[in-house]
Amino acid sequence: MRLSELKGIGPKTEELFSKIGVNSVEELKEYYPVHYDSYTEPENIEDCRAGSKCAISVTVTDPVSMYKAGKLTIISLDVRDSTGKIRLVWYNSPFIRSVVKRGSSYVFRGNIVSKKGSLVMEHPEIFKPEQYQSKLSTLNPVYGLTKGLTNNTVVKAIHSAFEATGDVPEYLPEQIAKALDLMGEETAVSYIHFPPDQDSLVRARSRLAFDEFFLFILALRMLRQEEGDKASGFRIPETWLTEDVIERLPFRLTKGQMNVWREIEQDLSSGRRMSRLVQGDVGSGKTILAFLAMIMTASSGYQSVLMAPTEVLARQHYEKLANMCREQGLDTVRPVLLTGTLTAAERRATLEEIESGLANAIVGTHALIQSSVKYRNPALIITDEQHRFGVYQRQALAERDCPPHMLVMSATPIPRTLGVIFYGDLDISILDELPARRLPIKNCVVDPSWRPNAMKFIKREVDAGHQAYIVCPMIEPAEGLQAENVTEYTAKLKKLFPNIAIGSLHGRMKASEKNTVMQDFADGKISILVSTTVIEVGVDVPNATVMMIENAERFGLATLHQLRGRVGRSDLQSYCIFMAGVQSEDISRRLDILNHSNNGFEIAEKDFELRGPGDLLGIRQSGDAAFRIADISRDRDILKAAGELAAAVMHDDPALILEENDLLRVKMREYMHSDVRTIVL
Ligand code: ADP
Ligand code: MG
């Protein structure tokens, strides 16, 4: 259903929505809040801290004053309670003078900032005390926005979306939903937007996490069943060629890499079909293993396919592979790149090469699994950094007589017991050491007052010929969200460092623009790259030695760890600066975990312990994650339940033909055909 069919949404608003990746009513309902704003009990003025949002309850005694500063009209008002005094300011809002009356009591709520040493509350919302009382402890959704689109518009649109779509029937058989004590799906979707209370939100979240796990696991199981057992697979004999390639690498493979490579080599040559997950922390060197497997496959005359979750990463893999083949004179390996940004002519030529078998090492994004791509003899499919590909890729190739070998590479740490739930009989290889000569990344957690030092530090690294990443949570300024954004940050930085080449990158840029920026950064033409989390996965620029993450408190620890993995990729000393925009004990305790550990799995575990099941920060802000709501480590109980249910369904009704599974069958069909969607704030 089109958005413009909703009440109050015209073509302009529709276009704004399409900027945030929402193109239909169904997608709108799935556009989950990034967090919730809650109205808490007013605080004493002395307890208000810079960087936080506070409410205070006061009686106004001073007059409201108004003055001009350049183009700005500033309204200011000093208020006090028994514990202290604070100044409230509003900009360009002269009407405030007639709203706030001397002698009356109000609750003011706004962000506290520090100005010239004293605290100021900026643009506070104004409530009568009884009005505020009724708002207390409600949870209000805050959405990712774009310029021109207000939170209020999104809220209204979502309300109309629910009205317009009516009741969607529950797809899980009733006894099952009851036995598992699951909230209804439709209720869960509506509560995730508009939770009546904290408890309902927790339950809604659990239900949606359950769905994500359950559908994913069931899809994998069904595909495996279609593919039949592992008995037959392409037999790809071992070859000296790969040994030579290993010899000629500019580095020596680590023992871990060598072991995993032997496992892969054995799988490929065994005549049985490989299903292997290679799990290794960021920077452990997984890519070279993929390349070796592709070279081995090509030398037997078969095709291999390497899929990456982003254009940027696909292109980078392709260039590396192509360079390696050129440098080492590997003429049996003929790499091509297939992504969404090729011109029509390039695309046609590439498709022909793939169909004829001329191209045999095929690298790309999920453009690779469109039906227009006709492979000649694909014997190996590798997916990098993206679990969901697992489903689509296998489906696209499932109908073949001889299903290809499958290799999945992931930096997401999953303990073996949980990995088995996902992948059943999948073999797991673990790369548990980083290449030698790597110096551990030096980390620090700082507050914004340290930013000038950070800038000096970054400049020093750049002057020394190295490069830096700066990550901001948002693309552009947005109403109601106090966080750094790429657009303004880049402009500020260009002013600060007029002689340094500064670039910016975010998910809403055209793919071709992203490629150019990333290529320039890789070539050293850009020294400082200001980016959103689009650089989270896979990107490898070894000369980058500093990463500074703004508003680090807004990201999950797993994301921060992945981000940090973009530095420390060579023998240069690297640094990661976590800038906490908001100070609180909880936040410093969480960030401190990163300070003390460079081990992805340990970090995920500790994060889970600290956050506890009641905490809702777990709603993902970046679409690169395999699941949007579910979190493998914190939702492990839900994962287990979903795994058991999927196993039961496969046992009792593997083809989903029983009447009670009618709706589940429809749901599965939709799920298997839906596109991989990425939402980048
Ligand atoms: P990830 O496991 O995160 O995908 P990459 O495969 O991108 O890591 O490798 C990170 C960097 O380390 C790359 O620049 C790669 O060339 C380099 N590298 C890989 N293996 C080794 C090794 N054994 N010794 C030194 N450098 C290595
Ligand atoms: Mg990688």
What report would you give on this structure?
By secondary structure, the chain is α/β, with parallel strands linked by helices. Strands 11-12-10-13-14-9-15 form a seven-stranded parallel sheet, with helices on both faces. Helix 7 (185-193) crosses helix 8 (198-227), helix 10 runs parallel beside helix 11 and helix 12 (311-327) crosses helix 18 (511-522). The longest helix is centred in the N-terminal third of the chain and has 30 residues, at 198-227. It is globular. The two termini are 24 Å apart. 43% of the residues are buried. The structure holds adenosine-5'-diphosphate and magnesium ion (MG). Magnesium ion is lined by residues 286-287, 384-385, 538.
SSE topology sketch:
Elements: H1 11-19, H2 25-29, E1 35-38, E2 53-59, E3 65-69, E4 72-81, E5 84-91, H3 96-99, E6 105-115, E7 118-127, H4 129-135, E8 139-142, H5 151-165, H6 174-179, H7 185-193, H8 198-227, H9 240-248, H10 255-269, E9 275-280, H11 287-299, E10 303-307, H12 311-327, E11 335-338, H13 344-356, E12 361-364, E13 378-384, H14 389-397, E14 405-410, H15 416-423, E15 427-431, E16 442-446, H16 451-463, E17 467-471, H17 486-496, E18 502-505, H18 511-522, E19 528-531, E20 544-549, H19 557-564, E21 575-579, H20 585-596, H21 600-611, H22 636-652, H23 662-673
Parallel strand pairs: 5-7, 9-14, 9-15, 10-12, 10-13, 11-12, 13-14, 16-21, 17-19, 17-20, 18-19, 20-21
Antiparallel strand pairs: 1-8, 2-6, 3-4, 4-5, 6-7
Helix pairs in contact: 7-8, 8-14, 8-22, 9-11, 10-11, 12-18, 19-21, 20-21
The protein binds adenosine-5'-diphosphate and magnesium ion.
